[in-house]
Amino acid sequence: MRTMFDYHADYIEPQLLIKILNYVSSHNDHLHELGIYVRGYSCLIMSRVSSCRALTSLKFSLSSIRRYDIRETLFPKNLNLPLLSSLVLENFAFCGGGLVLENFAFCGGENGCAEPFSTFTKLNSLILRSCEVKDAQILSISSETLVKLALLDNFAKIELSVPSLCTFTFTGDLIQKICGSSLSSIKQVNIDHEISPSVNNALALLSCLQDLANVELLTVNSTTLEILSLVPDLLEVKLPSFCNLRSLEVKMIPLHHGHLFLLMKDVMLKKVAAKSSKEADKLRKAFKAGLELPAIPDGIVDFLRQNPSSAEVNITTDYPGCFNLKQVEESIKGEKIINYRSQIATPASFSVAPACADESAFAPASAVASASAAPPSLHLCRAEI
Question: Whole domain around residue 129: which residue ranges?
Answer without folding.
Answer: 82-88+98-353
